[in-house]
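Dear colleague,

Following up on yesterday's call, I've attached the two folding results inline so they're easy to grep. Please treat them as preliminary; we haven't cross-checked anything against experimental data yet. The first protein's sequence and structure tokens come first.
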Amino acid sequence: MTRAAAILRERLGALVPRVALVLGSGLSGLVEHLDKPVRVPYAELPGFPRSGVSGHKGELVAGIFEGEPIIMLAGRAHYYEHGDAAAMRPALECLQEAGVTTLILTNAAGSLKAEMPPGSVMLITDHINFSGTNPLIGEQTDRRFVGMSEAYDRGLRAGLQEAARKAGEVLHEGVYMWFSGPSFETPAEIRAARMIGADAVGMSTVPEVILARFLGLKVAGCSVITNLGAGMAAGELSHEETKDMAPVGGERLARILRQFFAEGLEHV
């Protein structure tokens, strides 16, 4: 067991969550819904990321969420911060060693579909790695050859759609394309992305999915739509727009997640 996992297990005590949730932009307030929260700053867990992105706090919070034990990660490392696609590997290895078997990832993304406007939520059904890199580059064992035919677990997706229906929320579905960032995509790149089958674009999540599957975790992912892709609407894209719009879709996704966990973890 890594030192980080040992520290985390000691801090959690009798709490043994099977599910971890990575909180993207607009969802940081979800930690306030945890009962009996245990807060562990990333700085106290060796190998955990030091995010330099505004809106990403850098804290692990565990507790009871709608009756179920859970770990929430408030903050992630992005490839564009350090040039390291595997920056989240120590954190995910720690979670896996501490007993987590399912990872739910959330992010902010740009929509490539006019019918999925800012404020919407998209369930990720598949992804396209357009970054030119992979977090498993350099792994020395044959475990690096990870199958990705069903990277996003079918049962988890069905459970989230059912939760959305019961919560009265529309949960779009689509393919997420990972661009490295930090610059936003050009209109030409957005047109190319639409042509090859993407429905949303963003700068995170995909390396975490690859690492999670490498570690044997089940995965689900949801995108909070903060803008339309470059060239699809007037004006220039900005990080401020992302931060301003993320809470709108974040509230919708929070309601879906609360319903999902209130139903119990038979999907997990």
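Below is the second protein, in the same order (sequence, then structure):
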Amino acid sequence: MSLKTCILIGAPVDSGKKRRGCLMGPDAYRTAGLVESLTELGHEVADTGNLKPASVEATPPAEHVHHWAETIGWTHAIADAAEAAMARGLPIFLGGDHSLGAGSVLGVSRYAKAQNRPQFVLWLDAHSDYHTPQSTDSGNLHGTPVAYFTGREGFDGFPELTAPVPQENICIIGLRSVDGAEREALQQSNILRHDMREIDENGIAKPLTAFLKKVSDANGLLHVSLDVDFLDPSVAPAVGTTVPGGATVREAHLVMELLHDSGLMTSLDLVELNPFLDERGRTASLMVDLAASSLGRRIFDRPTRSY
């Protein structure tokens, strides 16, 4: 196993939606033993603490959009931290709601451009997060990061996108809640997308393996963004956007194990954990176990827990 320097970056972003609670996510991961789990695997772990958003004044493009300036401030702070961390090792962003993906992907894609390598993104999520600020009915910016880092319009005031991720370099797995505006935009895009019916019919390994081959053939950098709601809420209840019919524990571990086997993952988001909604920490512990699987833990290494 290739050992890594894992750089933990706390991003207690809670501005991407109305329901509060994700600001407690980073410390919940720490409490659930993320540092210890990665250290036991032999990796060096550097916990850089929690970021704070940059101070920004900005007017939202529409009245219904929530926390516009704060989310821009988070995007600046996370992108700068991401770009710097890539030069040191494998950054793991501890969220925080999924609007943090705007900053994490922006930062790692800047680094990829400087290395003259293509950036790829694996988005593990029940939602596509492909809304623009104008198309979202809810006004929640955690539903917009993919639109931002692919260069869709409507993000005036956000950091300049100097290295947009090409649509064909993005793969979304786990979709099961996509509204009309997003569906139409996705169908007109080159984003690779796999909903849960396809997973039910063909399994989860097939589309992931094909995408990983594409990353490998291009000598790309791979950012993985793992949303709690990728998982079925019966096993991961600590999220404000529960959608039944998600990935099982075994499917999720298979994804992470295949990522480790590929050796391609260069950065990771752990997002949308709301500990206020958890059951004795079971979701935080599962997310920590998944992160450990992506970095080399095998079936026989995994401790059995009783909740």
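For the second protein, one point worth flagging: The mean pLDDT is 95.

Best wishes,
A.L.
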